[in-house]
User: What shape does this take?
Amino acid sequence: MGALRILLADDHTVVRQGLRKVLEERQDWQVVAEAGDGREAVRLAELHKPDVAVIDVAMPLLNGIETTRQISRRVPGVRILILSMHSDEAYVTQILKAGAIGYLLKDSADVDLLQAVSAVSQGKSFFSPPIARLMLDDDVRPGGANVANVVDRYESLSEREREVFQLVAEGKTNKEIAALLFISPTTVETHRARIMEKLDLHSAAEIVLYAVRRGVVR
Assistant: This one.
């Protein structure tokens, strides 16, 4: 059996370096790629097809939830462990729905990272203790009825609309978004209009507030 191949995605270089140092204490593990934003993480996952992806939930250009969703769809063999500072139910529910099987709080990563990656690499779920306590609730546990059936306006957005939504919330102009997504500014404007209609928002300020409340941006 070859080395366990790992992708790291976090927008802080120092954090990635620290995680890499811990992970590579295992002689049979190899960090094959590092990403500083969500879009790069998706690209590198498609390129390297790692066994495990360790993804920060709060990243620029594409947040960890959308990154997880896209990697799960495009490279289904990758097992995803989320790193987060948040221990509330909303984040956990969104992450499980997106396709992650592990959720590790950053404040315990130095202690639990190896165990978490080991479990996830075997297809087992791993949750930091505060998250594990949440999992006792049927509404949050993987496969729980409400996880599968939760429907809100944000979930009605298409993949492209969610990408545009985050970039708008980050303050990027239509021209900048068009360049990042390789589409026309007119198409961006169309997406913006549909997003605002679906979410019942009426200004850029409302988009930012909605994004912050959802945890899409910090």
